[in-house]
TrEMBL record, chain A:
Primary localisation category: nucleus
Highest taxon of source: Eukaryota
Gene3D superfamilies the UniProt entry points to: P-loop containing nucleotide triphosphate hydrolases
UniProt keywords, alphabetically: Centromere, Chromosome, Nucleus
Species annotation: Fundulus heteroclitus
Localization, UniProt: Chromosome, Centromere; Nucleus
Protein's UniProt name: Centromere protein M
GO cellular component: chromosome, centromeric region; nucleus
Keyword Nucleus: yes
InterPro entries: Centromere_Cenp-M, P-loop_NTPase
TrEMBL record, chain B:
InterPro entries per UniProt: Centromere_CenpK
Domain of life: Eukaryota
Pfam family, one: CENP-K
UniProt KW Coiled coil keyword: yes
Family the entry assigns: Belongs to the CENP-K/MCM22 family.
Presence of the UniProt keyword Zinc in the record: no
Organism from which the protein derives: Fundulus heteroclitus
Transmembrane segments: none
Protein name per UniProt: Centromere protein K
Keywords associated with the record: Centromere, Chromosome, Coiled coil, Nucleus
GO cellular component terms attached to this protein's record: chromosome, centromeric region; nucleus
GO biological process terms held by the UniProt record: kinetochore assembly; mitotic sister chromatid segregation
Subcellular location: Chromosome, Centromere; Nucleus
Length: 184, 287
């Protein structure tokens, strides 16, 4: 089992690398196109259906600064796939270099409970959970902008901030009443 | 994650920031191409130094054995440790001079200032846009408020007017209406009575005349004839009785009622005889 580790490679100058993991490959492509439009830094986007990543191009792969799991809320499979992929990440990633992105939350056929499950997952791993829509170019653009903000911090491009610091502020928290029954 | 690894990891973090600041400076230097050769050399040297340190730290990280634990409790503890270590790092970090060369410092400072200026300009324009929008909204809302106020005033006025009108009109109106109805009913009754009188006068003349005519022929006793009342009077008596004492509508047939009239009334179903007393009749219940 090859773990993807956050610090096993040297960083490249003025470059931020992001790995988009999505089992259905619906949103990945458009999001990647929107991400590389960023001008101030070189954004390196890598796409994957699931983890672990294949070993053969391990050498050419840059250091991944942020891993984004895109979960389609209308499909149970995407959630299970993302959950299975989590095992192949080094624990160091969970100190602010992983983020979940839930899509299609507005869709009518959202599985009840799946949203709660995703939220539960994000809470247990102390990761931020973003909600995004992929219907219009504006939606994709704004999703990309949000990801870039996190990516710049995670790759150390923002002075006086670190990924851990940011993630402590932005991690998903569960309202108490979902987790435990209230007694009043 | 062991604490030594944490320290390494965090050192690297802090280091990376400084390195990047240097990179920025270098990039600016290249673009501006204003720095002297000496300053450039110094910058490059600094970068090399930093990169060497980075490589050293990278080595150390890789040397550390990876400890993967799936236990969320464990991860939570690690997270706490890492945050704590980072906090300590921030607290102990001393601000250090970028470089000793004044050229570099000037360039970096200038650049920072320009960046700050552009950022602040953006903030200003954003605030201005927001303010303008708010002002617009405020004006709109005020206009709405004004309109709403006027509507309220008008409605109140209308209500007041309606109420006054109603108070003034209601009693008078009802009175007039009732009066008109009464008059209509009265006229109708008059009409009916007139019709009845006409019919009676035409078809049932006073018994006196007839009796006076028959007196000569059939030799009826005279006093009887004189007491007889007309058919209309009989009907009047019957009707009065029904109206005045509805519980006892029977009228005693006495000698003032000419028997043929009574017979006629009974036969055509205008009057009904009392079930037990043959001498009492009442008007048929038409209603």
């Amino acid at each position: 089992m090859s773990l993807l580790a956050p610090f096993n490679k040297l960083p490249t100058l003025n470059t931020a690398s992001i790995l988009l993991v999505e089992s259905e490959e619906q949103f990945q492509q458009s999001l990647a196109v929107a991400l590389v439009e960023e001008m101030t830094v070189t954004v390196n986007v890598r796409l994957a259906r699931s983890l672990p990543l294949p070993l053969e191009n391990d050498e050419s792969r840059p250091r991944i600064d942020l891993v984004v799991f895109i979960i389609n809320l209308t499909s149970d499979l995407s959630f299970r796939s993302a959950k299975a992929s989590l095992k192949y990440l080094d624990p160091g990633y969970f100190l602010g270099k992983v983020c979940f992105m839930a899509t299609n939350a507005r869709h009518a056929s959202v599985h009840t409970g799946l949203l709660d499950a995703v939220r539960q997952l994000a809470v247990s791993l102390h990761c931020p959970l973003l909600f995004a829509e992929d219907q219009t170019p504006e939606d994709v653009k704004s999703s990309a902008r949000r990801l870039l903000t996190i990516l710049k911090v995670a790759s150390g491009l923002v002075p006086n901030t670190s990924a851990l610091f940011l993630s402590n502020l932005t991690r998903c928290t569960m309202p108490l009443d979902i987790d435990q029954p209230s007694f009043d | 994650m062991t604490s030594s690894k944490l320290a390494v990891f965090l050192n690297k973090h802090g280091h990376r920031h400084r390195l990047l600041t240097m990179d920025e400076v270098r990039a600016d230097g290249e673009v501006a191409a204003q720095l002297s050769e000496a300053a450039k050399a110094e910058l490059l040297e600094l970068c090399e130094e930093q990169f060497a340190q980075l490589e050293k730290l990278q080595e150390e990280i890789i040397q550390c054995e990876p400890d993967s634990s799936e236990d969320p409790e464990d991860q939570l503890v690690k997270r706490l440790m890492a945050t704590d270590a980072e906090l300590k790092q921030w607290l102990s970090m001393k601000p250090s001079l970028l470089a000793t060369n004044s050229d570099i410092l000037l360039q970096a400072g200038k650049d920072e200032m320009l960046k700050l200026c552009s950022d602040l300009e953006m903030v200003v324009s954003c605030c201005e846009a927001k303010r303008d929008k708010l002002r617009e909204t405020k004006e709109l809302e005020q206009k709405w408020l004004e309109e709403k106020k006027q509507v309220v005033l008008t409605i109140n006025d209308h209500i007041e007017r309606l109420r006054v009108e109603m108070e003034k009109c209601s009693e008078h109106n009802i009175f007039l209406e009732t009066k008109a109805k009464i008059q209509k009913v009265k006229a109708y009754q008059e009409n009916l009575m007139e019709n009845l009188g006409d019919i009676l006068a035409m078809h049932a003349p006073l018994s006196q005349k007839e009796s006076s005519a028959s007196k000569n022929k059939k030799n009826f006793p005279l006093e009887l004839n004189e007491n007889h009342i007309s058919l209309s009077e009989i009907l009047e008596v019957l009707m009065d009785k029904v109206i005045n004492t509805p519980h006892d509508p029977y009228v005693t047939v006495d000698d003032t009622f000419w028997p043929p009239y009574v017979e006629m009334l009974l036969r055509y179903g205008v009057a009904v005889r009392h079930q037990e007393n043959n001498f009492k009749i009442r008007l048929e219940t038409f209603f």
